[in-house]
Design brief:
mainly beta; five-stranded mixed beta sheet; three-stranded antiparallel beta sheet; 1 helix; 15% helix; elongated
C-alpha cells in the first residue's frame, strides 16, 4: 500500500497499460512515416498473347514520380502439367524503378518477346509483388 498519499502506479496497473498502448501507437505511427510516401505495387490491367508478333502483351498499372519505368521478365523453371504436353511456368515482372515514390498513377503497355520462354506450349503465370497474378496461355511454336 502506498503510504505517501500519492497514487503511485504499480506495474501491470492501468498506468502501465496506458504507457504500453501509447508506445504501440507511437511506434505504429513512426513505422507508417518511414514507409515510402503513398507506396503501391505494380499490377496488371490486362495481358494476352499476340500470335502475329509472338509476344506477350501486358498492360501495367504503376505509381511513380515519372512514366519512364521499364519492365522485364524473369522466367522460372518449366513444370509438366499432369503428363500433358502443356507446361506451367512462372514469370516475375520486374520494374526498373521499383523503389520510385508513388506520387502519380501511370499505365503502360509492354511487349515481351517470347524467344526466351523456356517451354511451349505453356500456361504462363505472370507475377508482380506483392500478390498480383495473371495467367496467359502461350501456344506451341508454329
Amino acid at each position: 500500500m502506498n503510504t505517501r498519499g500519492d497514487r503511485g502506479l504499480a506495474l501491470g496497473g492501468r498506468g502501465d497499460r496506458c504507457a504500453r498502448w501509447t508506445a504501440i501507437a507511437l511506434g505504429s505511427g513512426l513505422a507508417a512515416l518511414l514507409l515510402p510516401f503513398g507506396s503501391q505495387a505494380d499490377s496488371f490491367s490486362n495481358a494476352y498473347y499476340d500470335a502475329g508478333t509472338d509476344q506477350l502483351v501486358v498492360s501495367m498499372t504503376y505509381d511513380g514520380t515519372n512514366p519512364n519505368h521499364t519492365f522485364n521478365l524473369q522466367w522460372g523453371q518449366c513444370q509438366n502439367v499432369n503428363g500433358s504436353q502443356l507446361h506451367g511456368v512462372a514469370a516475375q515482372v520486374l520494374d526498373s524503378q521499383w523503389q520510385d515514390q508513388a506520387l502519380h498513377p501511370y499505365q503502360k503497355t509492354v511487349r515481351f518477346s517470347l524467344a526466351d520462354i523456356p517451354c511451349r506450349p505453356a500456361k504462363v503465370t505472370l507475377r508482380t509483388a506483392p500478390r498480383f497474378i495473371y495467367t496467359v496461355l502461350i501456344p506451341k511454336r508454329s
